[in-house]
């Protein structure tokens, strides 16, 4: 067995992969929310549709998409493995009060939070990613060419209150997941320092609030717009 295999089969190696995939997905969230903010632009969806076409046709972006898919799969697999190891190592539950005093609620429930986010992700992919690739989507013409009218697909979906509610609640869970995961990833990578750790925790907390809030803003905005 090579040292690479030994490393990635060890608990430390699996935590390292969890951290690396998690940090990559954090970068993905930044790019994703930045592009989706175009949904708020009052141009009838042109900017968003042009952005969507670029994201689905550019070779570099396609490669990053495949890396993202692998990161999601790897993050989920290693989360299951590590959760299973933790349960085996601690067959007897700790006293609730002791557990609460030594850790945050989000850190104690990362498995539950991750499971809820995974369920949301499956629904999200079915509603938009699947439709984008294989759905019967109307086409629109701009000066830049012919584009799939994905803006209409999104606005129609977010005219349904239950879908908006699902997204907003899921973003709250995502915020809790990021709150612990951001700082934890840096800690696992050994990037702990009394000078930098407070800044990392602050950035992580801000990220866990701002990014999910922006994602939640979009369905709320589009739903309110559909009422007018």
Number of helices: 10
Helix content: over 70%
DSSP strand count: 2
Query: What order do the SSEs take from the amino end to the carboxyl end, as H and E?
Result: HHHHHHHEEHHH
Overall body shape: globular
Stretches with pLDDT under 50, minimum 5 residues: none
Q: Quick one: CATH class?
A: Mainly Alpha
User: What is the structural class?
Assistant: mainly alpha
* Nearest-integer average pLDDT: 88
Identify the strand order in the major beta sheet.
1-2
Report the CATH topology name. Answer: 3 helical TM bundles of succinate and fumarate reductases
Q: What is the CA-based Rg, rounded? A: 20 Å
Largest sheet: 2 strands, antiparallel
InterPro entries: Cytochrome_b-558, SQR/QFR_C/D
Transmembrane segments: 12-33, 63-81, 110-130, 150-179, 200-224
Organism: Echinicola jeungdonensis
Keywords: Membrane, Transmembrane, Transmembrane helix
Descriptive tags:
228 residues; mainly alpha; 3 helical TM bundles of succinate and fumarate reductases; two-stranded antiparallel sheet; 10 helices; 2 strands; 79% helix; globular; SQR/QFR_C/D; transmembrane helix
């Amino acid at each position: 067995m090579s040292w690479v295999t030994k490393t990635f089969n060890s608990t430390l190696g699996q935590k390292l992969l969890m951290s690396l995939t998690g940090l990559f997905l954090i970068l993905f969230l930044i790019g994703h929310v930045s592009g989706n903010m175009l949904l708020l632009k009052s141009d009838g969806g042109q900017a968003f549709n042009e952005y969507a076409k670029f994201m689905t046709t550019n070779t570099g972006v396609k490669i990053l998409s495949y890396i993202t898919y692998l990161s999601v799969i790897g993050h989920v697999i290693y989360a299951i493995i590590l959760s299973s190891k933790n349960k085996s190592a601690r067959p007897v539950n700790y006293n609730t009060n002791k557990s609460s005093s030594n850790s945050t609620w989000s850190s104690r429930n990362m498995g539950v939070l991750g499971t809820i986010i995974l369920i949301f992700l499956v629904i999200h992919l079915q509603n938009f990613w699947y439709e984008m690739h294989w759905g019967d989507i109307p086409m629109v013409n701009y000066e830049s060419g012919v584009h799939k009218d994905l803006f209409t697909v999104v606005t129609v979906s977010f005219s349904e209150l239950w879908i908006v509610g699902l997204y907003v609640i899921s973003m709250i869970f995502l915020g809790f997941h990021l709150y612990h995961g951001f700082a934890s990833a840096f800690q696992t990578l050994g990037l702990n320092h009394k000078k930098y750790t407070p800044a990392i925790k602050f950035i992580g907390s801000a990220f866990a609030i701002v990014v999910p809030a922006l994602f939640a803003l979009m369905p709320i905005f589009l739903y309110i717009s559909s009422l007018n």
